[in-house]
Amino acid sequence: MARNRRGAVRVAAAVTLGLTGLAGLTGCSDDSTPSSVAGRAASAVASVGAQATGAIASATAEAGRKLDNVKNGADAKDAVRLGTPTTDSAGRSTVEVTIDNTDGSARSFAVQVEFKDDGGNLLDTVVVTVSDVPSHKSATATARSNRKLSGGVKAHVGTALRY
User: pTM here?
Assistant: First the structure.
């Protein structure tokens, strides 16, 4: 009999804790049902997602404008190597860009660097311009994200133009 009583007390304690936790999730507003709390949370997540999407769209548009300004550019993706992304003191992702000019004369390069998450989703994009790389020489530059990025960040060459 004592066993059953202890079990009943445990069940009552678990139910009480569960209800207390549910009450804590609903907050102290007039409309504090679990579904309204979940709805507000989803709305907040959607808002943050929309802001991130807007930032990516803006960065992509800016990168496109910079690349459109390159006249008589030739594909140079095979001449570009990227290092491993790191985070700078301001919390932005950076990556070293190395360019090998295999042409017979000095050339300039415009390199679009795409920062992506582990799932391959675009987080940000920037264009790095390196002017007058001597013939048969290499040059380096640093690509820096427009904003702080979180999680596993990988860098990829989107477009590279030699001109």
Answer: 0.63
